[in-house]
Amino acid sequence: MSRSSALQGWLELRAVKGLGPITYTRLIHRFGSPEAIRQAHLSELVATGDLSSSVAAALRLPLSTSTTQHIQRELEAVEAGKFSILTLTDPAYPTRLQTITDPPPLLYYTGQLKEIDQKALAIVGARKGSHAGRAFTRQLSGDLAALGFTIVSGLARGIDADAHEGALAAKGRTVAVLGCGIDQIYPPEHLKLRQRIEEQGAVLSEFPMGTSPQSFHFPQRNRVISGLSLGVIVTEATLKSGSLITARMALEQNREVFAVPGNVTHPLSHGPHRLIQQGAKLVEKPWDIVEEILPMLEPTFRQHLETQHTIGETPTPSIPLGPEEQEMFNRISLEPVLLDALIAQGSYSSSEVLSILLSLEMKGLIKQVPGLQYVRVHLR
Fold first, then answer.
1. 212 — phi, psi (to 5°)?
2. If you placed Cys at 250, which of 119, 130, 149, 226 could pair as Cys (CB 3.0 to 4.6 Å)?
3. Are the C-beta atoms of residues 220 and 120 closer than 8 Å to each other?
4. Sign of CA dihedral 52, 85, 102, 163
5. Stretch 305-332: mean pLDDT, rounded?
6. Interior CA angle at 105 toward 99 and 110, to 5°?
7. 347 falls in which pLDDT band (50, 70, 90)?
8. Whole-angstrom Cα distance, residue 32 to residue 166?
9. If 0-12 CB within 10 Å is exposed, 13-18 middle and 19+ buried, where does residue 174 land?
């Protein structure tokens, strides 16, 4: 059987109404292939206990013309190289994702999936993160990617985008999981970010080509984010955030859950603090995560991590700074600091302070925000 005809069988089975991922997976494990499932006797299908008689009967019915045409367009798109599709039994299908209760029977992807992506950590959070939360996310993501972890997130606005950006900046790998079809761009302003992710990782979706982003798709998407990963890190989230759904799914999938603490009065800290109260590991630095998952890693990678003597140390600027610049940089945090306060804290004149601040801005280490205030752009 050709690759195209085998894939067609998977697509046709997925189109049967009433057949969800859990049942699809159980049937594949029992019968081995879509062809064997559709050829099985009706009584044999019902006897498995996984199918109602109506769904079992639907397996025998021909698909509508529109559905058949859509499947043909998908196969043509694969042949044209617009994207690839992995089936649940494909050797290249992510091994960790295969272990969850309801893995996607089909994974659409662009970019490249690699074996090293088994060492993945998910970072998720609010779509409207604070400056401090977003900067910390970029730094944490970059540090973990530099250590050899693939960073998984959802390509959403805010924290998700910063998780991807941090990994890209560190020249590491990152994987984005979509809540829409692989041929859709959502949010639209992340087109260039997606293209960069495809160059250094992969973009995944379980939804058929042409599927628009709908709110009910994102909880479904979140189980794939956690399923791909050793653990899920929540940096900022409200108590009603979808990030907490991802954390719950991670627990159900026997994954580790981590949370970054924040200002107790800030609503975006409430989600992570709730997770910490429920037993999530508190995260202040990369080693807080690494030490928790070390036993899950293969010996060579574990040894590599343990020999990183700088891991967990207080970060310092990677760009060489003069004494005055270093002193000023140390006074500026991820929370806005008033210019007047910076002048009052030291022995420099106003013009000297402004000159030093301009130098730090030009080096990309800080930026001015409204109200004559300054914040760090990065931790280091």
1. -80, 160
2. 226
3. no
4. negative
5. 72
6. 100
7. confident
8. 41
9. buried
User: Do 125 and 160 form a contact (C-beta atoms < 8 A)?
Assistant: yes
Phi, psi dihedrals of residue 259, rounded to the nearest 5°: -145, 140
Alpha-carbon gap, residue 239 to 286, rounded angstroms: 24
pLDDT > 60? residue 314: no
Half-sphere exposure (Cβ direction) of 229: Cα atoms closer than 13 Å: 33
Q: For residue 203, what are its two tokens?
A: 């973009």
Band of residue 307 on the pLDDT scale cut at 50, 70, 90:
confident
Buried b (16+ CB within 10 A) or exposed e, 189-218: ebeebbebbeebbbbbbbbbbebebeeebb
Q: Kindly tell me if the per-residue pLDDT of 222 is higher than 90.
A: yes
The CA distance from 271 to 274, in Å, is 5
pTM, full prediction? 0.85
* Cα 61 to Cα 50, 66, 189, 352, 358, distances in angstroms: 18, 14, 42, 79, 70
At residue 274 the predicted structure's pLDDT band, cuts being 50, 70 and 90, is very high
The β-bridge partners of 150 are: 120
What residue has token string 């719950």? Answer: 248
CB atoms closer than 10 angstroms to residue 279: 9
> Which structure tokens are listed for 325?
């610049």
DSSP result, 223-289: HHHHHTSSEEEE-S--TT-HHHHHHHHHHHTT-EEEE----TTSHHHHHHHHHHHTTPEE-SSHHHH
Domains located in the chain, CATH noted: 3-79 (1.10.150), 115-306 (3.40.50.450), 323-376 (1.10.10.10)
Please say whether the beta carbons of 254 and 230 come within 8 A.
no
Q: What's CA 69's distance to the chain center, in Å?
A: 32
Distance CA 29, CA 33 (A): 8
Question: Which residues face 122 on adjacent strands?
Answer: 152, 232
